[in-house]
Design a protein that fits this description.
With 213 residues, the chain is α/β, with parallel strands linked by helices. It has a domain of 144 residues: Rossmann fold (3-Layer(aba) Sandwich), CATH 3.40.50. Helices cover 50% and strands 16% of the residues. The chain contains nine helices and eight strands. It has a five-stranded parallel sheet, sandwiched between helices. The protein has a three-stranded antiparallel sheet with strand order 6-5-7. β5 and β6 form a beta hairpin. α2 crosses α3, α4 packs parallel to α5 and α5 packs across α8. The protein binds zinc ion. Zinc ion (ZN) binds next to loops.
Length: 213
């Protein structure tokens, strides 16, 4: 059975890092709503332009836009997948179930739990690579002399990593995404994984929780 995982958690909980580790370990395809939207924005596509006001305001894009982005992507995937940043709302979670049909029973949702105080202290230290999918902290970047440890590319501060944006995203998460968490928990598909600690430590817990070999 191919892996079908939805990653949930507050902003800064490490979904991107864990999503990549998981996709690599399971040979699954990885999708990030945030990354995909930034790509659309930078390429100046119609969808990117539609999304711009929401991204500029540090807000989630509307359900219809997120669904278009994610379901189009899923259409082209053959094996397993890991979704990061989708679904973000209860409506999106229900639409995804509907889209998957009977296969939705095999979907596994992972909630990365990190205390809010720790999330706040993580904000502002994240960096991302302009060339590949690497996301990490300022200190990890410093160890690699300020360039991407994966490919040597240039690094930049994440577009949405300011305190004000973080608070808005946290409020949106609590209001909009927590009902989706309840949806997965109620249907017995939720794994709660502690997201504090090093990426390697968290990934070991995630792996155990999903019973990956
Ligand atoms: Zn890179």
């Amino acid at each position: 059975m191919a892996l079908q995982v939805v990653l949930l958690g507050p902003p800064g909980c490490g979904k991107g890092t864990q999503g990549h580790l998981l996709a690599d370990a399971a040979g699954a395809a990885y999708f990030s709503t945030g990354k995909q939207l930034r790509r659309e924005l930078e390429s100046g596509t119609a969808l990117g332009e539609e999304a711009r006001p929401f991204l500029d305001a540090g807000r989630y894009v509307p359900d219809a836009m997120a669904l278009r982005l994610a379901l189009d992507w899923l259409q082209g995937v053959e094996g397993g997948w890991v979704l990061d940043g989708f679904p973000r709302t209860l409506a999106q979670a229900r639409e995804l179930d509907r889209h998957l049909g009977p296969a939705a029973a095999a979907l596994q949702a992972v909630l990365l739990e990190v205390p809010t105080g720790e999330l706040e202290s993580r904000v502002g230290v994240r960096r991302e690579c302009v060339q590949c999918a690497w996301v990490g902290t300022r200190s990890e970047a410093a160890e690699a002399s300020g360039s991407c440890p994966a490919c040597g590319g240039a690094l930049r501060r994440r577009h949405d990593d300011t305190e004000d944006r973080f608070r808005k995203r946290l409020a949106a998460y609590e209001e909009l995404t927590e009902p989706a968490v309840v949806h997965y928990e109620g249907s017995g598909r939720l794994h709660r994984v502690p997201g504090s600690g090093s990426p390697g430590q968290v990934f070991a817990l995630l792996r155990d929780s999903l019973r990956l070999p």
